[in-house]
Amino acid sequence: MNKLLSALTGLALAFTGATAAASDTITRKICVFDIAGNSGPIMQAMRDWRTDALTWGLRVELIPYTNEAIVAEDLQAGVCDAGLMTGMRARNFNRYAGTLDSVGGIPDFDHLRMVMQVMAHPSTAEHLTANSYTVMGMAPAGPAYVFVNDREINTLAKAAGKRVAVLEYDPTQAQMVSQMGATPVLSDLSNFSNRFNNGVVDVIAAPLATYTALELYRGLSPNGGIVDFPLAQISLQLVARSSRMPQEIAQKSREYFFDNFDDILAVLNAEASAVDKKWFIEIPEADQREYEEMMQEARIQLRDDGHYSPEMLTLQRRVRCRFDNSRGECTNPVE
């Protein structure tokens, strides 16, 4: 009898514990921007994230969106508890994380990995919560390259007078294009590629991984090219309403995103490998230095105008110097 009572007591305690664990689970709606919709690769990656999130006490309903602007609007309106969007769009919610996509701030994936490792560390959490929103994950989307419909547009001077697609919600892009003497054409992620493919604009910036999905070879044909010099590292960021997402779950999510960095990188590299090498336009080293100087001037101006986070620019500069301490900015830092 005593053994039976002990067994029943143990079973009751186990049941009570299981019930408590289940009662601690919260349910939230996550709106996901994937231009391919519910069957797209971003939605699939978020389904994998959802599986892990359940072990953190987070039950998730994923809602696919093909229009990034509506993700941001629904997040602000409270329709979504969190939204996955590009880092450029996320800058409206958190300037520190949004500056991850700064022009020329992160030269390559090795630099990006180190920056994202710092951002995923608990000590950085305070920078990722601001204005009632919390960034709970960052993922690489690939470096942005300049696509042109005429490969003669291979210098800044030759871009003067050309039509350049810029994202309408990011005033920094229109500002930089105007300074080059080119004409900014306000666009969004749902139409910028079609405008390039149909000849409405002469120049766009896009990750190589979008070459096949957006059929950018159509806009490149027959005489276009891709300037072989990355402008910025594009990111995807998961932004949550702070009141709807416990900080401990947000931290676990950031660590999950970073732990999967190399898996995402492998997918991006596989997509980029589909780009025909004939399109690439090599840039002389002297011109590359000119571009680096121009991009640094742009970052400083955008920082001073309040668009870029000084703290993030400083982190990026420290990482660049970690990889190459012979850079002039390492002994005479201005960021």
Summarize the structure.
By secondary structure, this protein is of the alpha/beta class.
Please name the fourth-level CATH homologous superfamily of the largest domain.
Bacterial extracellular solute-binding protein, family 7
Compute the number of helices: 14
**SS strand fraction:** 15-25%
- Spans where pLDDT lies below 50 across 5 or more residues: 1-20
Q: How much helicity do the residues have?
A: 40-55%
CATH class of the largest domain: Alpha Beta
CATH architecture of the largest domain: 3-Layer(aba) Sandwich
Gross morphology is globular
Largest sheet: number of strands, sense, barrel closure: 8 strands, mixed
CATH topology of the largest domain: D-Maltodextrin-Binding Protein, domain 2
User: How many beta-strand elements?
Assistant: 10
Would you tell me the structural class of the helices and strands? alpha/beta
Distance between the termini: 75 Å
Q: What do the pLDDT scores average to?
A: 91
Protein architecture, described:
It contains 14 helices and 10 strands. The protein folds into 2 domains: 13-141 and 234-272, Bacterial extracellular solute-binding protein, family 7 (D-Maltodextrin-Binding Protein, domain 2, 3-Layer(aba) Sandwich); 144-233 and 281-331, Periplasmic binding protein-like II (D-Maltodextrin-Binding Protein, domain 2, 3-Layer(aba) Sandwich). Helix 6 packs antiparallel against helix 10. It is globular, with a radius of gyration of 22 Å. The protein has 335 residues and is of the alpha/beta class. The strands form 2 sheets. Strands 1, 2, 3, 4, 5, 8, 9 and 10 form an 8-stranded mixed beta sheet that branches. Strands 6-7 form a two-stranded parallel sheet. The termini are far apart. Residues 1-20 have low confidence and may be disordered. A hairpin with a 2-residue loop joins strand 4 and strand 5 (133-148).
